[in-house]
Amino acid sequence: MSDRFKGMVLEGKLDLPFSYSAGRTASRFFIELRDHQRIMGKRCPRCNRVIVPAQLFCKECFTKTDDWVEVGPEGTLITFTVVYRKESHHPKDAPLAYGIIRLDGADTSLVHLLAETDVAQLQPGRRVRAVFSKKRIGHILDINHFEMA
Amino acid sequence: MGRRTAIIGTGQTRHCSKREDVNQMELVYEAATAALKDAEMTVKDIDAVVLANMELFEGRALPDMWCGEGAGAFMKHAFKISTGGTSGTSGAISGYYHVASGLFNTAMVVGFEKHSDGNTSAGMALTDPFWDRHIAAAAIGNFALSVSEYMADRGVTEEQSAKVAVKARRNACNNPHAHLQMPDLTVKEVLESPMLAYPVHRLEMCPQSDGACAIIYAGEELAKKKCSRPAWVRAAVTRHDHIYLGEVKNRLSTIRSLKEAARVAYKMVGIKEPLKEFDVAEIYDPLTYAEIAWYEALGFCKDREGGRLIDDGLTRMDGELPVNPSGGVISTNPVGASGTIRVAEGALQIHGKGGKRQVPDVNLVLVTGYGVYCWSDVMILSGRPD
Amino acid sequence: MKKDNQLEELLRIPVHMKLHYRFPAGTHYTRFFREMKDSGKIMGVKCTQCGRVLVPPRPVCGECFVKTGDWVPVGPKGTVKAYTSIYIKFIDGSTGKPRPSPYGSGLIQLDGAFSTINHILEEGDPEKLYIGMRVEAVLKEKREGNIGDILFFKTIT
Fold this sequence. Notes:
The complex is a heterotrimer.
Chain A: E1 9-21, H1 23-36, E2 39-43, E3 50-51, E4 57-58, E5 63-64, E6 68-71, E7 74-83, E8 96-103, E9 110-114, E10 127-132, E11 143-148
Antiparallel strand pairs in A: 2-3, 2-6, 4-5, 7-8, 7-10, 8-9, 10-11
Chain B: E1 5-12, H1 24-38, E2 48-52, H2 65-69, E3 77-81, H3 87-100, E4 106-114, H4 120-124, H5 138-154, H6 158-172, H7 187-192, E5 195-197, E6 200-201, E7 210-219, H8 220-226, E8 231-240, H9 251-254, H10 256-269, H11 274-277, E9 280-282, H12 288-297, H13 306-311, H14 328-331, H15 335-351, E10 364-371, E11 375-382
Parallel strand pairs in B: 2-3, 2-4, 9-10
Antiparallel strand pairs in B: 1-7, 1-8, 4-7, 5-6, 8-11, 10-11
Chain C: E1 12-24, H1 26-39, E2 42-47, E3 53-54, E4 68-74, E5 77-86, E6 91-92, E7 97-98, E8 103-110, E9 117-121, E10 134-139, E11 150-155
Antiparallel strand pairs in C: 2-3, 2-4, 5-8, 5-10, 6-7, 8-9, 10-11
């Protein structure tokens, strides 16, 4: 019966407002992007890693980070993908390239969009550079994308 | 019962309507580090972590991701528990099971909610799409329905309800973590506050808070070594009733899940006269009327006498059984943490760290959790292991 | 550079989440909504063990944990067992906007049913609402096969 049963289906939409507080540390990270086009990390006093984006505490050592450190804007592409299927929640039309980028001076990597979508050009180890948006609002997309350096 | 297990540390954030200085993970971290400090432990001393939270309120998939990072379970054993309003107590009970089972020597439980990131009523609207979603008006509307039934059934008055609000917000003034502290609140002000859903006024309902709370459990040997007065878990019981409000008759008066959980827990500890035998109760009071209903269900008095208990002041700080010295959920409500806060506040009374809200000579504490439409958790904590 | 604690500006990241959902109703809810849509009848289902007539019609009785049995018509008249008037600006999750308030809401026990259903009451004035008041389901003319086919419950004497 189960495969032949034609039941009713309730369809609908959810439409919900959210507003996420960034907290003091991430706020400063975004404000640095917005006002000074600077990408900032914070150093863990215990393991000495520079964590980017800046975090209140080192998640591995469970210790508060202390010094602010400017990193980038250039870095090394660790890995990448190109998405060819368009989805409504994607930030850009397909093909959409994004990658994991180790910014110079950082010990953790940032996930961000890549301008280059040609797979032949996108090799791990390639150098990339942050391109800042003209209109910046204090958001991760204040870095518009990374371009090949 | 498993092996003897006690709470040896607790930690809470500052709870308020908007904690914009921290994000969700940082809120969890704040409570976890406060509990570690209280227990004089480091994150290395924790074997397992349980996180408790209401899913969807914050609009994040997998809030359990904060287990590893915010709650210190990086590369450790961790779980998330999500059972609505009982999340915080169910999480606490899960943490207890971890240690009582003998599989882990220590466990940390962190309950959290960051209401200001989302919209509670919208979150609550994600109920049954066939029957509730387009009809019900979330927790407040559904509670209001139950209150009209309860008032008719048990003869509780508006004034008695308002007295619960006054007691709670005054107690909250002694609790540095509490969200709503109102030393001069009067019955008149409560009843003149805006009507949310008849007959429930704003000041009779719990607020929406941002906050987190952590507790640390240890097995007997370590508990005795680390803590001069551990809060031993003597009973931990959960019961679930129907999910659909229409299948529960007189939700507040019958509250089968709470009665059954209490019956089982009382039997485990040998409680016969709860009002006399318990030294403190921290019960989950989402609104004033529920607190009075729980008095009856928990056997503090007979049915229909809950209102008299509040009239006679028996549950005030100077009464026979102080109920919610912390100010309760009516004063502070980060939902996923609200249950954990009840457990932490109960343990705090045994630890003797209650500060201005400390009740003298506490040995036996009753803690409850309440969730969804009719789920209940009951824990009994004691200064003595048996 | 400024120290953390000198920073005044704290940012929020707003996101409006729009999601589409699709819930298959299954055998029992399908029959309930089809009957209501096609013939305007409200149906419950009876537990073979405890005899409770359940609306919503559950395929399994949650208390006895056995399959339910016969279908029985219930209502359209019923009795208010609990009521409220909603004054809060409650955000409807399906629209993202508050519903118009105040409005009456109640738990209604349809004649012949054990359980009550949560629905909108025509009467929104809490002074005029009472437990035990008699009401009757008012159905839409053009029904779609969902709980909204009952527009509200009108007061009858």
